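Posted in: Structural Biology > Protein-Ligand Complexes

Title: Requesting predicted complex, zinc ion in pocket

I'd be grateful if someone could produce the C-alpha cells for the following input. Sequence and ligand are given below.
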Amino acid sequence: MEELKQSEQNKPCANCGAELKYKPGSQQLACGYCGYEEFIEQAKSSFEELELQHYLKAVGDNAYTETIDLLHCKNCGANQHIEENFKSLQCVYCSEPLIREDIEKEGWILPSAVVPFQLDAKKAGSIFKKWVGGIWFAPNKLKRAALDPESIHGLYVPHWTFDANMTADYQGQRGEYYYVTQTYKTKNGTKTRQVRKTRWHPASGRVNGFVDDILINASEKKQREIPTSVSFWNLKELQPFTSKYLAGFVTEKYTISLKEGHHQSFKKAKEIAYQWIRRDIGGDTQQIHHADIKLSDEKFKHVLLPIYISSYTYNGKEYRFYVNGQTGKISSSRPYSFWKIFFLVLFIVIIIALFAFFAQ
Ligand SMILES: [Zn+2]
Ligand SMILES: [Zn+2]
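-- Reply #1 --
Done. Output follows.
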C-alpha cells in the first residue's frame, strides 16, 4: 500500500503530516485538514519542446522516460494514475472499482507541460447542479447523482501537441465565375435567366508557414470520447510539468502512441495546408490536383489537460457529464424521464380537449 505514494518528493503537510493536494487556480499545495499551504516551485522556467524525428528514431514508438504506477480498468481499459493514497478507487470513466493490488509500474514519456485545474470539485459540482436544475424532464435519480460529490473526479487527459514548419508545392486551378443569359420556354412564352459558369485557369506555387500546437487527444476514444464542446483549452496557460499539480487528481496515461498521434496530426496539418493553398490560388473557387506537403523541424509535447467527469448508471445505461477543468464549460449526455414527459403530454392533451369542449 505504501507503494502508491509514488512521488515521495511530494512531502506531507509540514504542520500536521496529512497529504498535500494541488489547490485549483493557484500555484500552491494545500492541506485539507489544517489549511497549511505551500508554494509550488517551478522546476524549469519554460517547457521542453522535443525534436520529433530524432525522438522517434532514437527511442522508438514505445519509448519512455519515466515509470509511473498505473491502474488498468478491466471494464473500459483506461490507464489511470493516482498520486496519493485513496480510501476507495473507482474508474473515472465507468466507475468500475479499481483494486490497489493491481497497480503496475509502466513506462511513459514524461509530460512536459500541464494546464493545472482552475476550478475545484466543489465548483464543478455546483455547475452540474445548476445545469441539472435548468433542464426539463431530468429523472430524479440524475438530480440526486448531481448532489453526490463522490461521483465527481478531476482527471488530467493526455494529449500530444505538434509544431512544425510546413511547405507545400501545389498544382491546381483557379476558377472564376461568369454569368451567361439563357432563354427558356414556359407556358406563357420565352423568358431569360442568368446562369453561373466557371472559367478555369491553371495555378501552381508554394505556400509555407509555421503550424503551431496541433492538439491530438492521446486517450483512445470509442466509449470514452470527450465531447468536442468541452475540449477547448487555452494552451497559453500551459505550465512546465511538475507532479505537484497532479496531487489530488487522477492522471490518465496515453493509449495512443506518439507515432500514432503524429500520424493523426499530419491529417490536420494537411487540412491547414489545403486552406493555405486555396487562399494562395484565389479566385472564386479552387481545385487542388496535387500538393507536396513537407514538414520540417517537427517538435512535440506530451501535455495534460484538466476535465471533471461524473459517470453514473441509469436504467442500465451509462451516462457521463463533463466540466472543463480550466474554463468550467459543461457537456453531458442526459437521460429523459419517461414518466415526466408522459404526464406533461397527457396534461397538454387534456387542456386541448377542455378548450375544444368549451369552445363548442
Ligand atoms: Zn495539515
Ligand atoms: Zn473504466
